[in-house]
From TrEMBL:
<dbReference type="InterPro" id="IPR050816">
    <property type="entry name" value="Flavin-dep_Halogenase_NPB"/>
</dbReference>
<dbReference type="GO" id="GO:0044550">
    <property type="term" value="P:secondary metabolite biosynthetic process"/>
</dbReference>
<dbReference type="GO" id="GO:0140907">
    <property type="term" value="F:flavin-dependent halogenase activity"/>
</dbReference>
<protein>
    <submittedName>
        <fullName>Uncharacterized protein</fullName>
    </submittedName>
</protein>
<comment type="similarity">
    <text>Belongs to the flavin-dependent halogenase family.</text>
</comment>
<dbReference type="InterPro" id="IPR036188">
    <property type="entry name" value="FAD/NAD-bd_sf"/>
</dbReference>
Amino acid sequence: MTDVDTTFDGAHYCPPLFSPSVVDWNCDLAVVIIGGGPTGCATALTLLKNTARISCLLIDDANPASFKVTPLYMKASATELTVHCIGESLPPESARLLHYLHPTLPQELSTQVAAGIHIKCAGNASAWSSPYLEERHAILNPFGHVLHLNRSEFEELLRNKVEDRFSKAQSRFSLQKASFKSIRKSAEGIWVVGIETMGRGREIFARWVVDSTGRKASVANKIGIRSICSDPLLAFYAVFSGADSGDPHFTLDNDTRTLIEATPDGWWYTSLITHSPPTRVVVFHTLPSHPSAKASRRVDDFLGRLHDTTSHISRIITESNYDIAPTYPRCTAAGSSHLERVCDAAERWVAVGDAAVAFDPLSSQGMMTALEMGIYVGLKLSEVLESHCGSTEESFQKDVVQAYLAVQKEYEKNRRYYYSVVKRFQGQAFWDTVVDVGDGL
């Protein structure tokens, strides 16, 4: 590892905040990954496992204490608060992926579950094709329980594993806490990435850039790649809190199921976040063009719609004496979207995860897909960088596009099926519109 260069474009150098590894900023990097969520971490960890002596920088500006909402994926049968952190569901089959990324990850995740950081899901319940709940219990899954993740804590665990790998790597790897600001190509065809850390701006140089910035696809958009929203959907979400008994084993709310409920104007989701204090997230999904979208931004309208149109979710909130937390509800995008181009091997950039293809939360394309996409891109990029098996940039382009198309094809099939089974709201604007099929990549 080279010594720290104390100058960079005339500015004083600040070492990475997360990693003891130090990058020589005056040398070109092989890869810079922008975005340290699950997909970015999976890409970085896979590169570390499969490349020898290459240089890589993972850039992330996450606040581990922040409240984070992302689509909460489940299968239907038939921006930031520093108090609570939620995310999405992690199926038990993901253990093999976590072990591949780092051998201690499954055990450390189990330790967090035992500490109450994540909650075991008792099963899925849905009032979907009928007003009555249909249930699938976790005991029927031979792999174990689905987890309701504290998303911020899970991401921090992954970043810690990246840091651990980086500190032991023979290559030049580092994890940098910084904000992505700009990107351009130099006259020599090298990517010049502008970042800001601790209030200071600097530029770094890399041959490959990986966009793992989520739905906003910050890198792709800055280089002129459009993000196409094929099936718009909004999610209005709120956190509900109950009185803390002081005993984590005693609470009015012991319902750890994933629960969804279809209503005339859209569909609702809820899951328990923590037992102590009892905390639950409730999400309403509808179309941006639907009248309910404007009304649901107001707390009284959100609560009124919740209690007027749902039965099962309303009962949980009422019987457990929940109150909506201040500053809610809030709104985030939750529909289908994709980049017009997900990668360009000739230009040496690739998007991964939601930056490339994002899905309606009902379709089950959740955390497993994010981890798998990161691993797949990491493997393919490793082959290009190491020239394994005669891999070329042309084959990288073909393989990645085909893989993404396969994921999107499966998504479209699931999405069409899940929405098509709801027949009881025919004539309602939401249900008549939502079955439209999105465009391909």
